[in-house]
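WARN retry 2 of 3 for item q-0093 after timeout on previous attempt; input resubmitted unchanged.
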Amino acid sequence: MAEGVGKSETRASLGGEYVRYLLLLTALSGWAQTDARLISTGRLIPDEGYSDQPYIVKTNDGAWVCAITTGPGAEGAGGQHVVTRRSTDRGQTWSAAVDVEPSNGPEASYAVLLKVPTGRIFVFYNHNTDNVRTVIGDKPTYKDGLVRRVDSLGHFVFKYSDDHGRTWSAQRYEIPQRDFEIDRKNPYQGKLKFFWNVGKAFIAGNAGYVPIHKVGGFGEGFFTSSEGALLRSDNILTERDPAKIRWATWPEGEIGLRAPAGGGPIAEEQSFSVLSDGSLFAVYRTIDGHPAVSYSRDAGRSWSAPEYMRFADGRLMKHPRAANFAWRCENGKFLYWFHNHGGRFIREHPKRRSIAYEERNPVWLSGGVEADSPAGKVIRWSQPEIALYDDDIYIRMSYPDLVEEGGKYYVTETQKDIARVHELDLTQLEGLWNQASAQNVTRSGLLLETTAATFEGPPLPEFLQRSRRADYGTEDRRAGLTLDLRLTLKSLAAGQTLVDNRTPDGRGLAVVTAPLGTLELILSDGRTESRWRSDRGSLILGKAQAVTVTVDGGPKIITFVVDGKLNDGGDDRQYGWGRYNPNLKSVNGAPQWRTAQIQRLRIYGRALRTSEAIANQRAK
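OK item q-0093 returned
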């Protein structure tokens, strides 16, 4: 592209280059209208109103079987039960629902599936078999001390299917749970158990495993204490008589997987993965602002001291009190679903048990690869990408599952009233897995590369435009842009303009230095303005630095990647990423752009991915 465009040049003198800009923007704008990350583009999974945990297994006859907890009311209401459906076209259509338990019986909830080598499918779930209607809870959360939501207690049971999920056994079978300390400390001393499960069942070695999340009591934030365990069967893979299946509760001892030392009382929704050396990896949510991890080197019998999860570069990952799941893919690599915010802003909040449930939009994915350690295999996690989002920032998508089929990757998710299937972008996943070594400059979407102090800028994508509908209303182009900078600052003083295409009335964009060693991006269309800053201390005096500022017009999010690190807010902010005003039309400003202290500038007519930004910065 045009490098070193001089001050006296005009658009006309660019000739064919300018035409190429326009053609590229036309192509980009067509792509931007159909952002597959927008959850409304997914394929619907039918439900009865409430929908939770749309989990899938692939059957031996080539279908997908999806178990879902559903019912006519809200979560926890009467009539909640478990159903399954089959799909033979990767979730485009689904068969009629088959009741695992009827809606007019006691609450049946939170089902997970396991297919064993014989082709038999098991469905495991909570069942309020004794039809308990109230339990003792904490005051003053429950004024009379009684909890009337009874879907997270009772008995853990299973049924099975030998016809690929078309029907389920008439009889249910209970899985015995060994008492832990947390059970004996509940108001019923463990005679009535509080628990639930969202963790996928799995096979490791010659055994089958079903996670379970033990609960100590009910109060603020609903569950007031929790920890994880595994129900392990050494004969479920081969035993045909379900009444003869043996179960043990691991880990050994009386304490399950808890928060790291010094953490809070919540450690729940454990997600397990099997590594190539047979080790087990667990990741789970806390109310400490970070997810927790632990490894087992003896098939789940014991576990390493829990720690907070980190990226491969050593930085702590941030996550609220939401499902965060890791999956091992068929290629031996891993994907991790989380929400990429939190830290001390959750941990130190006076209402952290409940406030930590918020902000599950967007969803971020990190890629994992195995590495060796003195103890055995471990997973090294990439910096993340936005995988799914909704335009309504209060929508909370969660409880996903991953399915691979024909070389493609699909995830399910639910908003609690709508469940969907989404196909993931394979190039995004490969970028995550290869992030540690990629060092190529991205050319896709590149509008201009220059070393000039002033130059004639390319036209930038329009974020919004008038539609062709009868009412001529707004059409969201879902377009984006990226500024990729190389700079060396002679001063860290705030207010220095580094990149600027603004008109006298403020239309356009600018990158300026801001207080506390930060950069600030300013976006304006003359009536709507948005700003976001990089993390505190990201600028270093006199150092040659690489900065990538991305404006993602899908989720309307701004990110900074500085010297190979995606800003995450550190200890100064809950979020390293920020939202810009969705009413922003455009940042096309003055034809002439101006730069200062910039050694090179690349302008892209799309949002670069985190992996692309890191590769750009690493490239020589």
